[in-house]
Amino acid sequence: MPYQFEDLKKSCHSEWRAYIEHSFVAQLGDGSLAPEAFQHYLKQDYLFLIQFARAFALAAYKSPTLSDLRQAKEGLQAILDVELDLHINYCKEWGISEQELANLPEARATIAYTRYVLDAGNRGDLLDLHVALSPCMVGYGEIANWLNSRAVTKRGDSNPYDAWIAMYESDEFQQAMHAEIRWLDDRLADVSPARFSELTRIFSDATRLEIDFWEMGLKQSD
Ligand SMILES: Cc1ncc(CO)c(N)n1
Fold it and tell me: What sequence ranges are listed for the domain Thiaminase-2/PQQC (predicted)?
């Protein structure tokens, strides 16, 4: 049986559920999350996105083919020209200025997660890097879908976090998520059991670091 992305999720099922269904996410869905926790998360996510952009630059460097190189460039461009602009404008709506964003200290959870991903990519090859990035690229799309599947999730003006859910349920994000899963399914089909086992370590580490990122938001830890 060839391996698939789904097998990475199965290899750390309880961690994956703890990430997708984290109380930060549940509270965001029913609107009960403390605004200060969300603002803290938004600020750290700005710093996360900058390192995420660097990871796509690393993906370009690690690209063996022209097609991989183009894909990495598209990813870097999407983060720099679309996601970061959206994020900066969204932060403004939550009372966080561009000036404040530019001077933020990184929380330990942000450093741990982003540098882990960059290190996994530096040590390994393009597949290691994509596996390290997949909890972010796939997880947030799954989170939006999980929230939409719950009766307690509030949508529209009654939920101050509605726009956040809308961003990750958007066709654009969902398509990027499916493209990433297809890319991983293609590559994972050819790996040996020993190689798959290495990749599950990276996947579960990155998933645990996503859980810590939610915890950092909830506790507003630095
Ligand atoms: C921490 C984190 N993970 C994933 C995403 C989705 O891009 C994000 N914006 N932030």
Answer: 14-218
